[in-house]
Amino acid sequence: MAAPKIINDPLYQLLRDGKVQEFNQRIAAGETVDLIGCDFRHVSLVGLVAKGLDFTDAYFRQSDLRGVDFTECKSLKGASIHAAKISGVYFPVEVEAKEILLSLEHGTRMRYRT
Questions:
Q1: How much is the average pLDDT of 1-28?
Q2: Which of 32, 63, 86, 95 is deepest in the core (most CB within 10 A)?
Q3: Which of 53, 21, 52, 22 is nearest to 37 (CA)?
Q4: Interatomic CA distance for residues 98 and 110, integer angstroms
């Protein structure tokens, strides 16, 4: 696994700039983005529609994820949510509560139950 990356993709940059609603609209219109391994440190993703997005190995340290529903995202395998705001977040059922807690408190990468 490589270090979290900041990419030049315009859709990713919308998220980094806090333009979550515009991102959602463009994804709904059929645009695509590769978010695997991306850096979301200190980014607010409140209001994000995560359906169909792949956050494998993403780095969410101190991000604001409040209310995001990740249940229909492609994956959160290997993602880290250290010190993120996660009130009201729905995580995929494949991620056990202890994995979420370890990631939140210690920055471990989340593993899926098999």
A1: 95
A2: 63
A3: 53
A4: 9
Overall number of domains in the chain: 1
Dist CA 67 CA 104 (whole Å) = 16
Q: Is 10 helix (H, G, I), strand (E, B) or coil?
A: helix
CB proximity list for 53: less than 8 A, separation 6 or greater: 27, 33, 35, 73, 74
Note the pLDDT of residue 3: 86
Are 35 and 55 in contact, with CB atoms under 8 Å apart? yes
- The model's pLDDT over 26-77, given as tens digits with 9 standing for 90+, comes to 999 999 999 999 999 999 999 999 999 999 999 999 999 999 999 999 999 9
Range of the domain at 100: 1-114
In this structure, the dihedral spanned by the alpha carbons of residues 61, 63, 66 and 71, taken in order and rounded to 10 degrees, is -60
Report if pTM > 0.90.
yes
Question: In angstroms, rounded to a whole number, what is the distance separating the alpha carbons of residues 47 and 37?
Answer: 21
Check residue 95 and report its DSSP letter: S
